[in-house]
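Morning, I've got a small favour to ask if you have a moment. Here's the protein in full, and shout if anything looks odd to you:
***
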Amino acid sequence: MIFDEILKNILKYVSNDVKFIILLIIGIFLLNIKNIKNLITQSEKFFINTQEGNLKKLNEIRSALIQLSLEPFSKSKSKELHKLLSSNAYIINIKADSELQKNLYQNYTKSKTLNEELILNYTIAVQKKIKEINNIITKNNSTYSEFKSKPIRFCIKKSLPTICIVFVILAIRYFAIFIYKF
């Protein structure tokens, strides 16, 4: 008997709030989807443009380094690489960058020999950085392609924690109402 009364009271409170609960869940879900779409679209455009720009610059530097390694006595190639490094805002290592630029400048102005070890180490560092950027782009593209291929599943997966929080809050609310009434 007591259990039946409790159940009736709970159902009465729940039935009054069913529309509110459904609208709350739908509203939060739609807001989450909109935020996820906006964030992904904005970050994807900015990120891809930035990383591809960095990748292009690093590939140019790597190509110039390899050409200089093949012709270490070429002043024109060291001047070209020096210009490329000077105009590049993407820095691998400040100390290595400045040492290499100094060595290249001395090579094409004062005819000093190139530090081939420095060039080799810098080439390796550039290749590692290119590999890192490619991995980052691949990872980001996989998230973006998951969003593009299965948007409903992706949005549900991203919205699930919010929906769980809503249900926990509602459960606490009904538990508090239940305790308050009895």
About this structure: The mean pLDDT is 76.
